[in-house]
Structures are given as C-alpha cells and as structure tokens.
Amino acid sequence: MLDTTLCNSYLSVNLQTIINNMQSIQEDIGPDVECIPVLKDNAYCLGAVPIAKALCTYANVRTIAVAQVCEGVELRQAGLSAPAVLVLGGVPERLFPAAVEYGLQLTVFHPSTVYALEKLAAAQGKRAEVQIKVETGLNRTGAKPGAELGALATALAACPHVRTMGVFSHFSTGETKESPTAYRQFQLYQQALAQLQAAGIDPPQKHMCNSGGSDWFRASFCNAVRIGRRLYMDNQAEPLTPGTPGAVQEACSWRASVTNLRVVEAGDTVGYDAAWTAPRRTRVATVCVGYGDGLYYPLAEAGGPLLVGEQRARLLATCMDQCFVDVTDIPCRAGDEVTFFGQSSGGAAMPIQELGKFMHVEGVYFYSFLSPRVARVYEGLEP
Ligand SMILES: *Cc1c(COP(=O)(O)O)cnc(C)c1O
C-alpha cells in the first residue's frame, strides 16, 4: 500500500461541506423526496467510504447508489451495513452471487437477470433486491415501455425470491435546463410506471433525476433523486446564488508544490518534444505532479489557469510526473504551494467550474483522473 503521507500532492476533501451541500439539496427538494447520493467511481475519485460514512452518520442517508458490484461490496466491507446499496449499471452474470451475498440491489432490465437471481437467491435462502431500469432515450441499459417492460414484469411476478424495490430511468440531457428531450423522457418514464402498476408492480422508490434534473425539473422528482455532482459543486452553466435554497459549495482542493524555477529565453522549449516554445523571456516553475497524477492533459495543452501561492498563473505543458507553469509575472519560490482547483491554503479560489467552462467539460470530470498518488485528506469533521 502506498503511504499517502509521502505523496507529492494532496486532495483536500471537506466532508462538512459535503454534508452541508447534502442538507441544502434536501431542503431544496423537500422532505418527501429522498436524496440518494451517487458514490460511483469511488465517489468521483474522492473516496467512497469516508464520504458514505459521513453522509450516513450526519445526513441520515438511507440509500447509496454505486455503478458496479465491487463498489457496493467495498461499502459493505467497510461496515456500511444499514443503507440500501443500489448498483446502477449493467453487471456481468458472474458477479450476481456476490451481489446477493452482500445484499446489493441490482438493476434489472432483462428477464434473464431476474430468473438467474431467482435461482441464486432461492439457493442461498435469501431475497434478491432489484430495481427496474426503464429505457427512455439514453439507450444504455433499460427495458422499453411496452413489450420489453411487459416481459420483465412477467418475470418479476414469477420470481418470489426477487423483490422489486424501485423503478428508475436516467436523463440524457439532464444538465440542460428546459430540455425538450428530458420532458419526453419523463413522459415515457411515467408511461412505464403506469404499465408496471397495471401489472401489479408498484415498488417504493421511483426516481428519474440526477443532479442536473434536480436543479430545474421539479415535476420529475417522483419520490427520490440521485445526486452525484451536486454533492461537490453547483450546476456549471447556471450556478445558484450562494445562500439561496439548494446552493452548494465546492468541497475539494488539489494542492501540490513548486520544485524548481528556471528562466528560459525566447525560442527555448520546455518539456518533451518541445511541448511549449517560449515566445519571450519566461520564468518557468516546475511542479511536482503531472498527467500520471491526474492533471488533465488537455488543460495543460490549452494553457489552463491555476494558483501559485495566491496568484493566478498558467500551465505551459505536462509530463507524466511533473508539469510546467509560467510564473514570469508573479512572485514564486521553490516550495510554493500550487492549487489546481478549489482553494489555496490561504483561501484564494480557483473554482473547478471555471476549469470546466474553460475546457467545455463538466467540473467533476477533473476529479475522475486523480490517481492513488494523490493523497486524499478528509477535513471539516471532528475525528
Ligand atoms: C452517474 C449517475 C448519476 C449521478 O449523476 P450526477 O449528474 O453526477 O448527479 C445518477 N444516475 C445514474 C444512472 C448515473 O449513472
């Protein structure tokens, strides 16, 4: 195991901010709608176990969603036995026994899954919990309303060891306010609910919205919403005013250090294959992380912004383990702190949403590359 106290950089994750954000979201969506944190991909690479524990303890979370069986098992093995754990994605059949053993809810969209689970659960003397996924337009996984959903309902009715706990679908354009596609998808989802009800299936949880939809599509909340991105940052296109209902704060900061300074002359190059050529005399800082740590390569290529100390600077290029920053116009010494996103230790802001807008990607995208070489440091809560 990597000794993370020896890592070149660290990601500060403020658990109190995440809990505050969860509470702000809950106040916004109202007491009758359950907020299901989506902690897939190791909670967007921030650390699923500490975040799940904090949310269960301080925000009374009852259901957690992950994408894969291994992620659900990790939560169970970490001692999280109380919350329901929903596996959102399609799963290879060889993992069904583990899902049943660890009491995970699998997502079903094909009758063969239901029959396989029935056999397993009956053999283990257990109930397998599942949620129905409805295909409404993303065309990833799901049963289409009509014949497909009908066949699934028939299978569920024939399998007494399989218990249906929910019905859900997923927007393909949830982040786009007033999206006509989202309205159409929700209509189809309602059709599916009606079809299932007519077949005698009316499970307790019904959910359609992810963070994007939760920002604007109140009519589609049903009785639960699935929230990933919004635990850590606001909607990038139209952030809510701080302090208004539902507004959230950025919860994470990634910080590293300057290790070298060099003045290069006009025409000199920096990095492999002359990644960057100096147009003028330039003071270049070398920083102790690179794309191997999770620095988004295109951000470096595009000359993205970052903080050196409390000051704005620009990336010039990145290697696997080290990157280059232009510090010609700002004070800088070896050992200075570098903040890629979030806040500097001194409180200067480098909003991740600004990086998202700059690169035309979602802010959470920048989390998803962070490697195990970046220490995760959990702050904000009393230990
Ligand atoms: C990832 C995912 C979510 C969470 O999405 P956010 O936009 O981060 O809130 C919700 N539902 C499903 C099915 C997902 O795959």
From TrEMBL:
- Key word Isomerase present: yes
Give a yes or no for keyword Isomerase in this entry: yes
Q: What is this protein called?
A: Alanine racemase
| Gene, per the UniProt record | alr
**Which major enzyme category is it?**
isomerase
List GO BP terms, alphabetically: D-alanine biosynthetic process
Q: Give Gene Ontology CC terms.
A: cytosol
Pfam families in the record: Ala_racemase_C, Ala_racemase_N
Q: Which residues are reported to carry the modification N6-(pyridoxal phosphate)lysine?
A: K40
Name the EC number(s). 5.1.1.1
Q: Where is the Alanine racemase C-terminal domain?
A: 251-379
| MF terms (GO), sorted A to Z | alanine racemase activity; pyridoxal phosphate binding
Fetch the InterPro entries from UniProt: Ala_racemase (IPR000821), Ala_racemase/Decarboxylase_C (IPR009006), Ala_racemase_C (IPR011079), Ala_racemase_N (IPR001608), PLP-binding_barrel (IPR029066)
Organism annotation: Ruthenibacterium lactatiformans
Keyword line: Isomerase, Pyridoxal phosphate
Q: Which cofactor does it need?
A: pyridoxal 5'-phosphate
Listed SUPFAM superfamilies? Alanine racemase C-terminal domain-like (SSF50621), PLP-binding barrel (SSF51419)
- Please list the residues that bind substrate: R140, M320
